[in-house]
TrEMBL record:
PANTHER family: ACONITATE HYDRATASE B (PTHR43160), ACONITATE HYDRATASE, MITOCHONDRIAL (PTHR43160:SF3)
Residues of the Aconitase/3-isopropylmalate dehydratase large subunit alpha/beta/alpha domain: 48-478
Top-level taxonomy: Bacteria, Bacillati, Bacillota, Negativicutes, Veillonellales
Protein name according to UniProt: Aconitase domain protein
UniProt key word Flavoprotein: no
GO MF entry, a single one: aconitate hydratase activity
InterPro entries in the cross-refs: Acnase/IPM_dHydase_lsu_aba_1/3, Acoase/IPM_deHydtase_lsu_aba, Aconitase/3IPM_dehydase_swvl, Aconitase/IPM_isomerase, Aconitase_4Fe-4S_dom, AconitaseA/IPMdHydase_ssu_swvl
Quaternary structure annotation from Swiss-Prot or TrEMBL: Monomer.
Pfam families given in the database record: Aconitase, Aconitase_C
Gene Ontology biological-process annotations: tricarboxylic acid cycle
Natural source organism: Megasphaera lornae
Length: 766
């Protein structure tokens, strides 16, 4: 089904790949290096990256994007940060969509207040404002903004438009702020991994099945982490562009940096249908192209899949799962209990087995992955003249945009779904992040959405509330719905199915979307609701640093959803301190209390220094051990902050709040073995925290202090290895390091955060 190459490969004239060692043997040792270097320039990715690269180096990229996108739980903070940094207008098309906080009313008016702020910002700075219920962020960008050879940056991790020939990247808000200030996105040239597609998918196999199969094959070994996935091969032609879009958006779950697809006549037809024929151009590898690895996919061997809790990589074929359901469920229960804590009464999945059949309580087809026209039309075909039943099982369907919704109505698909008992709703991302259609406690939901991390469905294990989510394709979800919630593969349901031709009509966009790019009205006042707050002042990096260990998480991976929960907490993302109260609340409820205690200790230290008296017993003990560690230490040049330790933090969402919430509570560093994604590490840096790593097991505990002397001087000198001292019952050294930083990243940390860095540059007229 899927084969991973253990070495680089050459693709010559678009034919089957040749392992690098075989091709280079033919070339000869003397010519091999030059041949490879030239062939690296033959990928689709190389051409797009270099076209957007503003540096003089092909290896150290400085990217300026063609457009950007944010939704309503990220754009307020981004605009506030850019405004504080000196922005006066949006220098590139910036789309503000309202698809996350549009259906939840937590906190009274505060969600709609954000939308009013967003419209006022679009008017003032020249933005594009998409009102609530009109489109989910990524569908709007596909329909209106993506094009062949472009690059788009979004403040959402699923920013992926590769099937339309666009290299799109999801990042934290700080990287979007840099673009608004006409700075660049700086990265080393990434490795490029080919995804070579052969064979023809079975009619029952949908895009989610293909995506999950790929994620299952690559995620756990980090095969594409921070790399670009380039989809090529003869079988792209067997998939419509709408189908490809649904595969492409899921590449985020592999931990790759971005994705791009070979384009063809169907891509051109899609763009022409959406009124943008000029956005098409043929993209394909050159006659000889070198890839740093390859995922070889035989589409004909992929079967309908299910990704069980708690990650999209936890995949089985539906048939395999049904054959071994008891064993697989017991194994999954153990994993869940280990992750959320053994004291919870949740995670009992085996009770869903009845007479050898597995029953689920909810189905959802939604968002940028599931809400596409092709997925919903196929689900409507499967459910035609069937009955979801009047028991506990329910099916909710969210078309991804109003144009998609309108044509599904015209085609009779909505009628078929409703007649079967499904509830069809407006464009909304809630089921993807825990703010919509939360299942009952101990219920099991199957979803064609993007993620099934813990808490993404809205449960709160700390309160004894837990429901489980599995990912499946819309086709098999519909088959399950028609079978009363009994888990059912779509095989046999679509053998004669022909998808009705989609007709796009964007009149709703013409009537409702505010198109302000290039038309900024600088005298427009920003409209602030009572929950919209400015960022608090943040201190620069001190010369010496004392870090209080405020949490220690030993899970193999810690997601951004665990660092800052999604769901109803999203309503507070325009209020830095208000949101910070939820930090790690579903993973380590005592973290906030410990972080505030560290911040209070820093306030006591500053007061004692100002008054030239040193009376606090905790500070006395810390200072005593600091002197043991380095012989002498200047208390005046020392700062106290909090830190989190995780083995591998930051999988999942791009949300910068996973870092900013730590920072506004006094956070000064993360320590980990490895960062799960580049975007989370970038968020840590942009919020002025030190992104430390540790090669060995962590030998410190929660509530220990770690002293890092001369951290500022060493960082200024470009040093990336640091000796810290664990101040517990004794004084023990610990070796920390930071992976390479750009000059700007180094200076952002020294300044204390991106806002401070930009203010200083403005003051210095840089």
């Amino acid at each position: 089904m899927i084969t991973l190459y253990g070495e680089g490969v050459y693709v010559i004239k678009g034919k089957d790949p040749v392992p690098a060692h075989e091709q280079e043997q033919k070339i000869g040792k003397e010519m091999a290096a030059a041949y490879r270097d030239k062939a690296k320039q033959g990928t689709i990715s190389y051409g797009i990256l270099q076209t957007h690269n503003k540096s003089k180096s092909a290896d150290l990229l400085q990217i300026q994007f063609d457009a950007m996108a944010s939704h309503d739980i990220t754009y307020v903070g981004i605009i506030q940060t850019a405004k504080a940094s000196g922005m006066h207008r949006f220098p590139l098309p910036y789309v503000l969509t309202n698809c996350h906080n549009s259906l939840c009313a937590v906190g009274g008016t505060i969600n709609e207040d954000d939308h009013v702020f967003g419209l006022s910002a679009a008017k003032k700075y020249g933005g594009i404002f998409v009102p609530p219920h009109i489109a989910v962020i990524h569908q709007y960008m596909r329909e209106k903004m993506a094009g062949c050879g472009k690059m788009i940056l979004g403040s959402d991790s699923h920013t992926r438009y590769g099937a339309l020939g666009t290299l799109a990247i999801g990042e934290g808000g700080g990287e979007l702020v840099k673009q608004l200030l006409q700075d660049t996105y700086d990265i080393p040239y990434p490795e490029i991994i080919a995804v070579y597609l052969t064979g023809t998918p079975d009619p029952a196999v949908g895009p989610h099945d293909i995506a999950l199969a790929i994620i299952g094959a690559v995620f756990k070994q980090g095969y594409v982490k921070n790399k670009i996935m380039e989809f090529i091969g003869p079988s792209i032609k067997h998939m419509r562009t709408d189908f490809r879009n649904s595969i492409d958006v899921m590449t985020t779950e592999t931990a790759c940096l971005s994705s791009i697809w070979q384009t063809d006549e169907d891509t051109e037809q899609y763009l022409s249908l959406h009124g943008r024929k000029e956005a098409y151009k043929k993209l394909a590898p050159h006659e000889t192209a070198y890839y740093d690895g390859m995922i070889y996919v035989d589409l004909s061997k992929i079967r309908p899949m299910i990704a069980l809790p708690m990650h999209p990589s936890n995949v089985f074929t539906i048939d395999e799962f049904k054959r071994q359901a008891g064993d697989i469920l017991r194994m999954t229960e153990k994993d869940i209990q280990k992750r959320i804590g053994g004291n919870n009464s949740a995670a009992f999945l085996t009770d869903k087995l009845q007479d050898g059949k597995f029953y689920v309580q909810q189905g959802v087809i939604a968002g940028c992955a599931g809400g596409n026209y092709g997925n919903i039309a196929a689900a409507a075909h499967v459910l035609a003249h069937k009955n979801c039943g009047n028991d506990m099982f329910s099916l909710e369907v969210y078309p991804s945009s109003q144009p998609v919704y309108m044509d599904l109505i015209r085609k009779g698909c909505v009628t078929s779904l409703m007649a079967a008992g499904a509830v069809v709703k407006t464009a909304f991302c809630g089921p993807c992040f825990g703010a919509g259609d939360t299942p009952a406690n101990n219920a099991f939901s199957i979803r064609h959405t993007t993620r099934n991390f813990p808490n993404r469905e809205g449960s709160k294990p700390g309160n004894g509330q837990f429901s489980a989510v599995a990912l499946m394709d819309a086709r098999s979800i519909a088959a399950t719905a028609g079978n009363g919630g009994c888990l059912t593969s779509a095989e046999g349901y679509l053998d004669e199915y022909v998808e009705p031709e989609y007709i796009y009509d964007d009149m709703v966009y013409n009537k409702r979307v505010y198109e302000g790019f290039g038309k900024e009205k600088s005298d427009t006042a920003l409209i602030y609701g009572p929950n919209i707050k400015d960022w608090p002042e943040l201190p620069p990096l001190p010369e010496h640093l004392v870090l209080k260990v405020c949490t220690k998480i030993s899970d193999p991976v810690t997601t951004t959803d665990e660092l800052i929960p999604s769901g109803e907490t999203s309503s507070y993302r325009s209020n830095p301190l208000g949101l910070a109260a939820f930090t790690l609340s579903r993973r380590d409820p005592d973290y906030v209390m410990r972080a505030k205690a560290a911040a209070m200790l820093e306030e006591i230290r500053k007061k004692e220094v100002a008054e030239d008296r040193y009376a606090d017993s905790v500070l006395k003990e810390i200072y005593k051990k600091m002197k043991i560690a380095v012989g002498s230490a200047d208390w005046k040049d020392t700062g106290i902050g909090s830190l989190i330790y995780c083995v591998k933090p930051g999988d999942g969402s791009a949300r910068e709040q996973a870092a900013s919430c730590q920072r506004v509570l006094g956070g000064a560093a993360n320590i980990c073995r490895e960062y799960a994604t580049k975007r989370y590490r970038s968020n840590v840096i942009n919020w002025g925290m030190l992104p430390f790593q540790l090669k060995e097991e962590a030998s410190f505990s929660v509530d220990d202090y770690i002293f890092i002397p001369f951290v500022r001087s060493r960082l200024q000198e470009g040093k990336l290895h640091f000796t810290g001292y664990i101040l517990d019952h004794t004084v023990r050294p610990v070796s920390l390091y930071i992976e390479p930083l750009t000059e700007n990243e180094k200076n952002i940390i020294l300044s204390g955060c991106l806002i401070n860095f930009n203010r200083q540059r403005k003051q210095n007229n840089i």
